[in-house]
Amino acid sequence: NAGVTQTPKFQVLKTGQSMTLQCAQDMNHNSMYWYRQDPGMGLRLIYYSASEGTTDKGEVPNGYNVSRLNKREFSLRLESAAPSQTSVYFCASSENGANVLTFGAGSRLTVL
Amino acid sequence: AQSVTQLGSHVSVSEGALVLLRCNYSSSVPPYLFWYVQYPNQGLQLLLKYTTGATLVKGINGFEAEFKKSETSFHLTKPSAHMSDAAEYFCAVSASGTYKYIFGTGTRLKVLA
Fold it and tell me: Please, is B23 exposed, middle or buried when counting C-beta atoms within 10 Å of its C-beta (0-12, 13-18, 19+)?
């Protein structure tokens, strides 16, 4: 019962480098999300995908792009990393909107 | 618009004491309310949820929460704290037909022996 799987778990980047965070879920959920978690700020929504083929901006989308590759997979790309993007990133999925979120274990990203 | 306020970023209780974590929300539509728990270096896990119906909601590990519309609150309680309850707790609000959850800033619970 894998649930939501994120890779990589840790990554260190230099300013200006690019990278993609991968997320896959095996629960046949329709909706997928990317959040970032920063101390004292809770979780903030970056992008979400209500269903396969659709993506929408959340609270903090600047500097990020996403791809809903298929129903299972939802990737987050940083085109030109900045120190302000140092954070822990969580992928989540739900059957549909406003339902319970199932989270991955997180990806800790450091941008130097 | 929706918002969530968690009072107290850190709460300490003695083992066996009552746990009370406070959450107040603002919502222009009937809210769906959630409590999630995060253990160190892990993702968030659902403790309990309120959507409609009974206002007292029971969750896992002996936790419960009561939806009080008049007070716009959804406080989390547990009668007797256990060492294993030490974690960070997040309150969240959403609504039917939306994909945007709003999370509170979290309350870190410390349980003293």
Answer: buried
Residues B4-40 pLDDT 10s: 999 999 999 999 999 999 999 998 888 999 999 999 8
Contacts of A97 in chain B (CB under 8 A): 94, 97-99
Residue B52, classed as helix, strand or coil, is coil
Q: Which two tokens stand for residue A68?
A: 């809903």
CA distance B58 to A107: 31
Mark yes or no for CB contact A100/B34 under 8 Å: yes
> Which residue in this structure is represented by tokens 């959040």?
A35
> How close B48 gets to chain A, by Cα (Å)?
9
CA B36 to chain centre: 6
- Amino acid present at A28: N
* Closest residue in A to B42 (Cα–Cα): A105
The partner residues of A94 in beta bridges, in order of sequence, read A31
Question: Rounded to the nearest 5 degrees, what angle is found at the Cα of B58, between the Cα atoms of A93 and B28?
Answer: 60
Which of 29-68 (A) contact B at CB < 8 A? Answer: 31, 33, 40-45, 48, 50, 56, 58
Average pLDDT score over residue span A8-31: 96
- pLDDT by residue (tens digit) across A27-48? 999 999 999 999 888 899 999 9
